[in-house]
Design goal:
By secondary structure, the protein is α+β, with helices and mostly antiparallel strands. It contains five helices and 23 strands.
Amino acid sequence: MRSTGVGDRAVTLVDARARRGVRWARRTVAGVGLLCAFALTACTAAAPPTPPTPDTVTIAPTVDPAKSAAPAPVVPVLPPTWPLTGIEGDVAQRPALAVKIENTAAARPQTGLEQADVVWETIVEFEVSRFVAIFHSQVPAEVGPVRSVRPMDPLIVAPLHGLIVYSGGQPGILELIAASGAQAISNDAGAPGLYRVKTRPAPHNVYGSPQSFWDQADADHQAAPGEQFVFARSLEAASAVAAGSPTTTLSLHLSAASDPSWSWDGTAWLRSEGTAPAMAASGARLSATNVVTITADHPNTDFGAQGGAPVPTYTLVGSGDAVVASGGKTLAARWQKDAQDTPLKLVAADGSPVTLAPGNTWVELVPNGSGSLTLG
């Protein structure tokens, strides 16, 4: 039988188409694979890489040598000062010595006053003036004339806790002295170191030896006194000099029998009794670095003097007006004393301490209402 070739051609055509389908399928699979590969690559490229975790490092702070801690401040050690004058020096370990000194015409010129650290002037009966002279930094060879005690004396000497020397006193006033805490050295009690001179009539002739008085200090009265006033370290730093008003004269009226005054000579305040210069027995003019005027009530007490005259005192526990004179200037102030055995304080209007210039001080007790101070 003869073949016509149609079937073969049909088979051949079918096979060709089948082969083309296989090739198309392969190309399709390959294309899909490439697309997936591209998609995977794109997805992988879009995700950012995870950064590495750094190691923890601790760095200690450093101090710049130029910014080191500031050194501790150096506080200068100031030289010691005498407690009753504020003057620099090695302080002797002896007590304060208060001596009652007369100030009538019959008593002048007195001995030893120019060497006192502090002198308090008071008005006693018959309107006469009497001093409480306090010695510590200097040792006079002799002091006098020594007279009797009065009711205001304990208010002055109690804060010193030292010695008080006198010649006589009424029993009730002697009890006040005994209660003051001061050690009494009395001529009437026969204390050593007191004697009468022949150059003056009694009762203006009792004198004494300060060194002998200090030698009698008992075990409870050996220590140096504390400061009674606050002192600046220099004249220029004293309150009156720094903030006061220029003044040349201080004229005081203390009583009908006492009108002392002070004049500034460019170096110190010079004392006068009325119009006469006040002199010491040594020939020295009585002078002061500071003059402190205290105005206080001056009531009479129940103690009587000769002829029934009342014996006055001062009201010094409390406060009142004061004037401080230093370096040719004066400053208004206030005084305050909290108790008999505490020092009298000087304060400014704002309550701050008023300082005195280094040197000796006279305290003028002006009777409130009847006494006065005039500045010139």
